[in-house]
Amino acid sequence: MLGAAAGVALGATAAMAQTTAPSADAATAQPDTAAPPEAGTDEEASDIIVTGSARRQRRFDVSYAINSLSQDDVKRLAPLNFADLLGKLPGIQVEATGGEVQNITRIRGIPTDDGYAVFQQDGLPLFHDINGNFFRGDSLNRYDLMTSRVEVVRGGPAPIFASQAAAIVNNITVTGTDTPHGKVQVTAGTTDLYRLDAMQSGPLGERTYYAVGGFLRRDGGQRDNGFPNDRGGEIRANIKHDLDNGSVRLSVNYLNDHNTFYLPIPVADPRNPSVSLNRYIDFFHGTLNSPAFRGVTLKYRDAAGVVQSQTRDLADGRHMEYGNIGLQYEGEFGGWNVAAKLGYTRGRLNFDALYSTSNPVDATVFANGFRTAANGAFGTTAVPVARLGYAIAGTNGAVAYNPAADAGLVVQAQYRGVGSSFYSGQGDLSATRKFETGFGTHDLRLGLYGSAYGLSNKAIYQDYLMEVRGKPRTLDLVAYSATGAVLGSVTDRGVLRYGTTLNQGDVDSTVYSVYANDTWEVLPGLRIDGGIRHEWYHIEGYGLTSTSVNLGDAATLADNAVRSFTGARQSRTGTPVTTNWTIGANYDVSDHFGGYVRASHLEVPPQSSSFYGIDPVIIKTKADQYEAGLKTSFGRNYLYLTGFYTKFDPFNASFVAFNPVTGRNDQAVPFIGQAEVKGVEVDGTLAPVDWFFVSGSFTYQDPQYKNLANSSGADPTAVNGNQIIREPKVFGNVRPTLSFDVGGDGVEVYGRYEYTGRRFVDLFNNTRLPAYNTFGLGATLTHDGFQFQVVGDNIFNNKGLTEGNPRTDQLDGQTTRDAIYGRPIFGRSVRFIVSKAW
Question: Residue 344 forms beta bridges with which residues?
Answer without folding.
Answer: 325, 425
